[in-house]
């Protein structure tokens, strides 16, 4: 059972604070050796707590965490050999950059010459060659971030954890660091667990993404599957943009289902697991998969709509639409493709392919019948 | 350029702004000057002023200042002195002058007052007349003491405050051992301050750590517990220790009841009592700056250090402790400076050998009215405090520079 596929495993892990607060609940999750897994979820969903339990700073209330087949229950944090990058970097302000990076080596009592060589290599790795004698306070945010990275990597830990490492950086720097971290992962063959609440970051960087919600795992899947085949309406809503409609399943049939949206419009959709005839459902469709046309009907799920508002986004135009049956939705239309007829107030035909649209568990406010 | 034309008014309004700022702090400035700087300055000036003798014997003082100090003064000086003695008799200036002389030379007070009673004007041989009233007037030392008191400025008090004196020939020498007390008292004061600071640090550091890392509602409760004694009068706190530590107080009762000791321990009216009470009184001054520094550190540096492989003790010593250095320095400075100025607590719970310098300042200010000596002792205490502060500023103002 243990093997490279289960390098890190969470086995029904829970963490409770007091009687009422479940920070993490029955978490089952595995990470393979060399994999880049991102924990994605809104603030307070238990990502940091899961990471802290793995690093050894919190004890699970229940369940078992294993690293390389070995239970971590009685292993103190300083013997876990896990590199960690903290959200606020946690650099040591009274030490120079070089001393910060040398720290994990000096506590391991490595010979001085080796330490110096390793520090130099680590500094080059994160392209901070000239900064060795500076203090953290004399560095920019991005440079501090790189020092934290170098310090977590310099002792060659087999597993590296990063808790929202780029949260404090501006967008441009963040995108640059995302690429650098991804390259480091590829180059060093690290196993990396990365925490973020930014879905774009999760999609672009990871081999697999674990979506957290209220202390539980919603879905663990590669980015493409997460985006194309979300397992729940929460995931569909949290990862990327989506239009969501309430409705009832009329009939399920070989992975497809017929759904009657509130208001009476009947559409065909791909059925997620657990969808049964007669149940309430939330239908999710990505805005760029909504087809808008002036005359001809789209091939599937066609229906009338009115353009309420157009918002220009440069590369695309966002069209807010309303259907006679009461659905409000928006579509992304690539700009510059000659949609001269697309004007506010114009009647249009809309539709989408059945496989682009998924019937999922009902969102809380979609659970009841309309009215 | 349009920008150029708005420059001048901007400059003027900036000046007006700055003037406004000065006016705003003017009340504070006046308050500090009126209640603090000026009174303390006036008090400290007394450590080098010696007006008492010259006030009663102005012409004698001038004549003595002109005298070379060898052997006996010229007879004219003695005659002037006799005349002024007569004039001063019954007045209220002679007593302070007598007190001042007595501080230098024991027995001078009664000699001067008796001589004044028997003084009469003479045409010649003033020295002989004085010697007839009391044989001691023939001793050069007596006149040398008067010359030292002639003022208006003197180093007498400052020298006395560090157990030095001027000999009759004007050179500086050590006080005779029986009268040398202040150097010992200063050393004792600095030592007690050091011990109290060390205890406060050792006891306060873990408490501050606990409060800084406790969950919010516990932290608030603990802070209040620390602050309550801080808000209580020093007198009340100190008396509470008397109740606890006295011969048949709570602590001794408990120790004897549990059979740990048979005879009650002497816990008060000695050095133990002073240390216990002072540490308790000053502990909040250590805890609060430490707490505020630790609050800003949070758990992540320790966690980072441990994730990088440091055992808790090494993580603490190499990562946490150095980051609290500013808090340690501030707390230690506050405690130490407060401790060396302490007066009430040692007086209430200490023995005769535990009194600190402030006790003597109060003693000379209130009991013997020797304000010159009180001022000199205060000045030295203030200098010690100032030096400490300078040392602190050198270490702490540039925490990023150097290691
Ligand atoms: N020390 C703690 N005491 C009580 N509740 C906590 C503590 N740490 C975290 N929590 C709670 O656990 C939940 C998960 O927190 P966290 O793991 O920090 O979320 P995330 O990192 O996803 O934002 C939150 O509801 C948070 O309030
Ligand atoms: Mg977090």
CATH class of the largest domain in chain B: Mainly Alpha
Number of self-contained structural domains of chain B: 3
User: Segments of chain B where pLDDT lies below 50 for 5+ residues?
Assistant: 1-6
- At the fold tier of CATH, the topology name of the largest domain in chain A is Rossmann fold
Provide the structure class of chain B: mainly alpha
Number of domains of chain A: 2
What is the overall pLDDT average of chain B? Answer: 88
* Rg of chain B, alpha carbons: 30 Å
How many helix segments of chain B? 21
Oligomer: heterodimer
CATH architecture of the largest domain in chain A: 3-Layer(aba) Sandwich
- CATH architecture annotation name of the largest domain in chain B: Orthogonal Bundle
Question: How would the blueprint of this fold be written?
Answer:
The complex is a heterodimer of chains A (371) and B (403).
Chain A: E1 8-17, E2 21-31, E3 36-40, H1 47-55, E4 62-67, E5 70-71, E6 82-85, H2 97-106, H3 112-125, H4 141-153, E7 159-163, H5 171-188, E8 191-196, H6 199-205, E9 208-213, E10 216-221, H7 223-228, H8 233-238, E11 243-253, E12 256-261, E13 266-271, E14 280-285, E15 291-293, E16 303-312, E17 316-322, E18 328-334, E19 347-351, E20 357-360
Parallel strand pairs in A: 3-8, 3-9, 6-7, 7-8, 13-20
Antiparallel strand pairs in A: 1-2, 1-4, 4-5, 9-10, 11-12, 11-14, 12-13, 14-20, 15-19, 16-17, 16-19, 17-18
Helix pairs in contact in A: 2-3, 2-4, 3-4
Chain B: H1 2-5, H2 7-45, H3 52-56, H4 58-66, H5 75-88, H6 94-104, H7 108-118, H8 126-133, H9 140-148, H10 156-161, E1 164-166, E2 172-174, H11 182-213, H12 216-231, H13 234-245, H14 250-257, H15 271-297, H16 300-307, H17 312-323, H18 325-340, H19 344-349, H20 357-366, H21 371-396
Antiparallel strand pairs in B: 1-2
The complex binds adenosine-5'-diphosphate and magnesium ion.
């Amino acid at each position: 059972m243990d093997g490279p596929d289960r390098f890190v495993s969470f086995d029904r892990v829970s963490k409770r604070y007091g009687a009422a607060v479940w920070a993490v609940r029955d978490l089952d999750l595995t990470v393979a050796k060399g994999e880049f897994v991102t924990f994605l979820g809104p603030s307070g969903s238990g990502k940091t707590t899961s990471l802290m339990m793995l690093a050894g700073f919190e004890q699970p209330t229940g369940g078992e965490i294993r690293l390389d087949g070995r239970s971590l229950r009685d292993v103190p944090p300083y013997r876990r050999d896990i590199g960690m990058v903290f959200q606020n970097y946690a650099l040591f302000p009274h030490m120079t950059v070089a001393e910060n990076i040398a720290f994990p080596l000096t506590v391991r009592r490595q010979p001085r010459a080796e330490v110096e060589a390793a520090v130099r290599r680590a500094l080059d790795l994160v392209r901070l060659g000239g900064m060795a004698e500076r203090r953290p306070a004399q560095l920019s945010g991005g440079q501090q971030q790189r020092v934290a990275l170098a310090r977590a990597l310099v002792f060659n830990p087999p597993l590296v954890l990063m808790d929202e490492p780029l949260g404090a950086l501006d967008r441009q720097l963040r995108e640059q660091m995302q690429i650098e971290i991804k390259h480091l992962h590829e180059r060093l063959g690290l196993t990396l667990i990365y925490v973020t609440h930014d879905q774009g970051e999760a999609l672009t960087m990871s081999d697999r993404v674990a979506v957290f919600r209220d202390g539980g795992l919603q879905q663990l899947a590669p980015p493409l599957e997460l985006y194309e085949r979300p397992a729940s309406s929460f995931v569909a809503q949290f990862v990327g943009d989506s239009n969501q409609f309430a409705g009832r399943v009329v009939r399920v049939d070989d992975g497809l289902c017929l759904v009657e949206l509130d208001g009476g419009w009947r559409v065909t959709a791909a059925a997620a697991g657990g969808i049964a005839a007669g149940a309430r459902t939330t239908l999710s469709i990505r805005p760029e998969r909504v087809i808008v046309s002036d005359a001809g009907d789209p091939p599937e799920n066609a229906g009338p709509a009115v353009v309420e508002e157009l918002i220009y986004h440069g590369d695309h135009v966002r069209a807010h639409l309303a259907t006679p049956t009461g659905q409000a939705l928006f579509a992304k239309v690539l700009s510059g493709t000659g949609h001269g007829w697309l004007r506010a107030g114009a009647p249009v035909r809309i539709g989408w392919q059945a496989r682009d649209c998924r019937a999922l568990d009902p969102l809380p406010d979609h659970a009841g019948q309309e009215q | 350029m349009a920008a150029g034309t708005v420059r001048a008014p901007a400059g003027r309004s900036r000046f007006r702004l700055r003037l406004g700022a000065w006016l705003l702090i003017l009340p504070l400035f006046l308050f500090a000057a009126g209640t603090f700087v000026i009174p303390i300055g006036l008090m400290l000036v007394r450590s080098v002023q010696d007006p008492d003798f010259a006030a009663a014997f102005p012409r004698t003082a001038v004549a003595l200042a002109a005298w070379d100090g060898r052997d006996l003064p010229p007879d004219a000086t003695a005659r002037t002195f006799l005349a002024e003695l007569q004039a001063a008799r019954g007045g209220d200036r002679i007593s302070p002058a007598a007190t001042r002389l007595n501080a230098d030379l024991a027995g001078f007070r009664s000699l001067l007052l008796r001589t004044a009673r028997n003084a009469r004007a003479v045409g010649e041989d003033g020295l002989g007349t004085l010697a007839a009233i009391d044989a001691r007037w023939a001793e050069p030392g007596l006149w040398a003491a008067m010359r030292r008191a002639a003022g208006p400025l003197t180093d007498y008090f400052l020298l006395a405050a560090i157990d030095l004196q001027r000999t009759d020939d004007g050179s500086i020498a050590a006080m005779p051992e029986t009268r040398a007390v202040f150097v010992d008292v200063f050393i004792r004061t600095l030592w007690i301050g050091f011990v109290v600071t060390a205890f406060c640090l050792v006891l306060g550091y873990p408490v501050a750590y606990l409060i800084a890392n406790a969950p919010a509602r516990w932290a608030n409760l603990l802070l209040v517990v620390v602050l309550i004694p801080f808000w209580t009068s020093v007198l009340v706190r100190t008396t509470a220790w008397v109740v606890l530590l006295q011969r048949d107080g709570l602590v001794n009762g408990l120790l004897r009841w549990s059979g740990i000791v048979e005879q009650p321990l002497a816990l008060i009216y000695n050095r133990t009592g002073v240390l216990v009470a002072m540490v308790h009184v000053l502990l909040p001054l250590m805890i609060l700056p430490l707490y505020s520094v630790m609050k800003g550190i949070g758990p992540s540096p320790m966690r980072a250090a441990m994730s990088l492989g440091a055992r808790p003790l090494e993580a603490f010593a190499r990562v946490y402790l150095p980051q609290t250095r500013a808090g340690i320095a501030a707390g230690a400075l506050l405690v130490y400076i407060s401790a060396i100025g302490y007066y009430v607590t040692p007086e209430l719970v200490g023995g005769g050998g535990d009194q600190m310098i402030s006790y003597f300042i109060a003693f000379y200010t209130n009991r013997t009215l020797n304000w010159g000596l009180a001022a000199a002792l205060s000045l030295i205490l203030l200098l010690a405090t100032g030096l400490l502060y300078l040392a602190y500023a050198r270490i702490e103002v540039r925490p990023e520079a150097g290691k």
